[in-house]
Amino acid sequence: MFRLPTTLCVLLLTSMADGEALELDRDLTDLCFICSCSADQTTIDCSRRGLTEIPDGFSSQVQKLNISNNDISVFPANLNKFHNIVSLDLSGNQLTAIPENALHNLSALEELFLSRNYFDSWISLNPNDVFLPATSLKVLDLSYNKFRTMGNLANLELIISHSLETLILEHCEIDSLHGRSPLSGLTNIKVLKLSFNPLVRIHSLISSTLKTLDVSNCALSRINHNELMYLPSLVYLKMSHNYRLELSASAYNLFSDSLRYLDISYCNVLQPNLQGFPNLRRAILNHNMIRFLRSNEFENNTMLEYLDLSYNNIGSLKSDTFRGLTLLKYLDLSWNEIATVPQDTLLEMPTLTQVKLSRNYITNVGHLKSNSVTILDLSLCEISSIGVDALEGLKSLVDLDLSRNLLSHVPDGVSSNTLKFLNLNYNRITFINNYTFFMLPRLTGLSAIGNRFTAIWKRSYFDSNPYLERLDLSDNMWRCDCLDVNMYDFFEYVTLEPSKKEESYNLICNSPMSMYGQTWLSACYFIWNPTAKTPNPDSLIWFITIMIVGLLTCLLLVNCIRRSTQRRLAAIQAERERQVEEARDRLRQLRMRAEQEALCNTPDPRDLIAPPSYDEALTMPKLNASCHSLNETGSGKTRRKRGRRKTKSSGDLLEETERNGDVPVGGVELTEISDDGRRANRPRRQISRYGSHEVAELEQSPGARRRRMSEYNAEFNEPNGDVVTVEVQAEMERPLRPRLRRYSNDDGQPRESDF
Ligand SMILES: *[C@@H]1O[C@H](CO)[C@@H](O)[C@H](O)[C@H]1NC(C)=O
Ligand SMILES: *[C@@H]1O[C@H](CO)[C@@H](O)[C@H](O)[C@H]1NC(C)=O
Ligand SMILES: *[C@@H]1O[C@H](CO)[C@@H](O)[C@H](O)[C@H]1NC(C)=O
Ligand SMILES: *[C@@H]1O[C@H](CO)[C@@H](O)[C@H](O)[C@H]1NC(C)=O
């Protein structure tokens, strides 16, 4: 709806521009908006769009138009301009009628689908005229409408079309065909499908052209012998699933010279009665009620190639039953009740190649004779024995299926020069020997699944079968004796490439109990491979296990190594750090000691200034003040100050010395020590006072120097004051010369003060 304005616009625009091309475009735009168009816009699918009428404006180039499954109830009147339309699908709508001129101009129309509409009378179709303009119409599908009858009342209901070939009327509830032939207006009709109608009779069908008639799944019960007479071209007649239908068993048989294909399966046929079909090629008569076949039953069906009589109740065959079937190739007699097949029965059919006799009551493979049969199916019978010469009469036999029978023994020397495939599955055979197959030189495949073999076969059983390629031996009861050389030999023969005949896993031991259910190989691996340490099927698992274990071990090892390396590295690192720490400690101690030592050995700054020599002293100016005045000024403060002033020039020092006068050296020391209260009680060294000259002299004596040093030490080692003196004394014992010299080497030569 929201597109409406746009559409209107487009419409307006296009109506203003009155070009043919634009008109075309408008049609397609409109159409392809609602429906889906193919790339070349010749195929348009408008199905399932809830349309009630065909959208306006179609292009004439459209070839396939599908408007199925909509809600159209009136046949579209605007189809006329599509003279190129080939296929029109209007099925699944609600049409009840077709106007007379509905298909006017649709001369290209070939297929018209009108199934699943609401047509219920032929007249509403205007059948006389409506299809005439569609001169190419070939297929008309009207199935799933409710016509109920198909008649020809005064020709009003007659569909007239000279081109129509296929008329489909399935599921139309038609129960009768009446009047003069309803097909008389269809002068070119070839196929008529009337299946799934409750038709009881198909009389009054007249058509010289009809080839195929499908009346399967109807309610036919009877066909008069001449009912196909007016269908001279009929080739294919399908009448299956008419459960009551039987071919007339009257003196006159249904006949058709043209019929080639007849399907009358799932009916109620008691007798084939195919005599009237001399040109029949294929007859399908399965799932019927045929109980016996007469002599020469198919005498006149000389063209028959394919005959299916399975799922009947045929109890016996006569040797001349199939006489005359000179072209028959396929005969299916399975699921019947045949007990014996006379020797010569098959000989009557010189071209027969495939015979199915499965699920019958045959008890032995007799002495069937045929020069042509190549495939014989005798499965699911009750065969318990084969004659040694049973196959000799089958000169061309290639494939014999004896599966699911009751065979317990295959006689020695069953011979056939042609047999290639022998199926003995699911019998009760217990043994074979080297004579069993030695007369089957062409044997290529042998199936013996599900039998009761216990003794392992021998390679020599197949000495005469050079072409053997395939052996199926599974599901047997092999008794395994691994020590038996033959077992290994046969195993090798069967499973060894390149001429492998069976998968080794199909060879399974049934006994002894210890080996029950094991394959031959796994049961005997150790014995067959004494050197091998592990059984072969398990060797892979073993290998994998070992690989995994090895891998894990490897991983573990690597991990361990890595971890131990890391640990060692860490230890080394720690050790190194410890050493470094130690070294650092030692260094620190050393440094501390060195510092201490350095401190201990640091010369008194006063030492830096060489004391005046005697001559110098003599030149020095004379002290003005007395020695007493010196004593007066010797307070601790001044002393300390003086001590700190280590870098004073000798001039300064002299100046100070001059200012302070004579310094009572011992007094200074005492003062210093007494600063530390603990020393207060210590006996004081009594120092006499000297004059300035004497001082100078004293200063130079070793004792004075020692005192000065101790004074210096005391000054810097106040905390450990107690030991100061002792330490100092001890230190003094050490050779201090070098250091002293170092500080006092301003004149480069040893001095008096060095001792
Ligand atoms: C038309 O479309 C339907 C699907 O809606 C499809 O089943 C049918 O086969 C189409 N008809 C033709 C003639 O292709
Ligand atoms: C029939 O087709 C012709 C072109 O082939 C066209 O000119 C004519 O209009 C059509 N008739 C109708 C009734 O649409
Ligand atoms: C086979 O056809 C011949 C003539 O064509 C006829 O005489 C004979 O009776 C037919 N056989 C059967 C069994 O109908
Ligand atoms: C079968 O085997 C036996 C020995 O067990 C041997 O004498 C005989 O010749 C063999 N027959 C064939 C046909 O190989």
TrEMBL record:
Superkingdom to which the source organism belongs:
Eukaryota
Which UniProt keyword terms apply here?
Coiled coil, Leucine-rich repeat, Membrane, Repeat, Signal, Transmembrane, Transmembrane helix
Look up the coiled coil feature and give its residue ranges: 562-597
* Gene3D superfamilies per the UniProt record, alphabetical: Ribonuclease Inhibitor
Q: Where is the composition biased (Basic residues)?
A: 637-648
Location of the LRRNT domain? 31-64
For the region Disordered, what residue ranges are annotated?
626-716, 731-755
**Signal sequence bounds:** 1-21
Biased-composition ranges, Basic and acidic residues, are 743-755
TM regions (residue ranges)? 540-558
Keyword Membrane belongs to the record: yes
- InterPro entries given for it? Dev_Immune_Receptor (IPR050328), Leu-rich_rpt (IPR001611), Leu-rich_rpt_typical-subtyp (IPR003591), LRR_dom_sf (IPR032675), LRRNT (IPR000372)
Cellular component per GO?
extracellular matrix; extracellular space
What PANTHER family does UniProt report for this protein, alphabetically? SLIT RELATED LEUCINE-RICH REPEAT NEURONAL PROTEIN, TIR DOMAIN-CONTAINING PROTEIN
Q: What name appears for this protein in its UniProt entry?
A: LRRNT domain-containing protein
Native organism: Chrysodeixis includens
